[in-house]
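Lab meeting, item 3. Inverse folding demo.
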């Protein structure tokens, strides 16, 4: 892992030095005394914007966006507390720019790359301090805090490192016709993959096919080390029943009869897109969330 981090930081710095940035951006000089890869990543992310000229012009937008993208790519290699401190420092400094345009531009970039699910580098934990910064910003009108407050309330639910909110799901019994209520917490395994899906969602169908075709996942589920709960967050029992034959028999499979999980008044899980996957340990602590099939495989292979 240290070799990977070292190589990543080295490549990132080389790429950044070769990028045609304007004079508004230059990387911080890395102290020779820092030899540990994590220490170097921490220093780079914390001092990343030290030489940036916090002024807003249309001419520097492209350079700023490229710098922001590379900044985000360094984040996973640094300590979370350091990343949060860096984000707060960056936004606080940007907020001092008189026109307010630079601050708004950084918020746009944070939303685009850290919050939007379509971004390959999106990360809720890194967007949370952005939302908190907006809410705490007294210079902004109150209306500006409405959307980040809504987002923050949802992002704080079921975070990595916390216990997953329990789910009641309705499943078929062994009888010809009949249903029974079960719970996520009843599943006993070293790992549980909680898969939210919709039978009519093309991406969901493809993800389920990929999970079924994965030799890694098949080996884990066959041994009982990994259990998969495929959960349809709807009470449309007919649609659910028509799709059940597409799921492996050794998966747990159910639907939300009481429509509790995504209820608009008090949803227990924020599902910004489907499929959404959570990987849980034996105590139902969330290890990772909003995963791809490749990310699940990588977790067990690495």
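The presenter then showed the designed sequence:
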């Amino acid at each position: 892992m240290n070799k990977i981090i070292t190589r990543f930081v080295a490549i990132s710095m080389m790429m950044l030095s070769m990028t045609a940035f304007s004079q508004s951006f230059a990387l911080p000089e890395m102290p020779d005394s820092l030899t540990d890869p994590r220490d170097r990543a921490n220093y780079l992310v914390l001092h990343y914007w030290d030489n940036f000229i916090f002024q807003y012009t249309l001419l520097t937008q492209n350079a700023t966006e490229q710098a922001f993208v590379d900044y985000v790519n360094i984040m996973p290699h640094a300590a979370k507390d350091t990343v949060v401190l860096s984000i707060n420092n960056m936004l606080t400094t940007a907020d001092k720019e008189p026109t307010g345009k630079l601050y708004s531009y950084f918020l746009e970039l944070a939303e685009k790359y850290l919050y939007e699910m379509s971004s390959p580098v999106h990360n809720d934990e890194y967007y949370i301090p952005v939302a908190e910064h907006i809410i705490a910003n007294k210079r902004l009108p109150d209306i500006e805090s409405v959307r980040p407050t809504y987002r923050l309330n949802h992002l704080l639910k079921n975070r990595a490192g916390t216990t997953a909110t329990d789910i009641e799901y309705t499943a078929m019994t062994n009888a010809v016709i009949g249903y029974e209520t079960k719970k996520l917490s009843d599943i006993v395994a070293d790992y549980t993959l909680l898969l939210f899906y919709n039978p009519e969602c093309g991406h969901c169908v493809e993800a389920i096919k990929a999970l079924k075709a994965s030799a890694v996942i098949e080996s884990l589920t066959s041994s009982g080390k990994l259990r998969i709960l495929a959960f349809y967050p709807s009470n449309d029992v007919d649609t659910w029943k028509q799709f059940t034959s597409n799921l492996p028999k050794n998966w747990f499979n159910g639907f939300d009869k009481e429509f509790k999980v995504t209820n608009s008044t008090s949803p227990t899980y924020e599902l910004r897109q489907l499929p959404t996957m959570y990987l849980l340990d034996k105590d139902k602590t969330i290890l990772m969330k909003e995963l791809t099939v490749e990310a699940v495989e990588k977790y067990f292979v690495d």
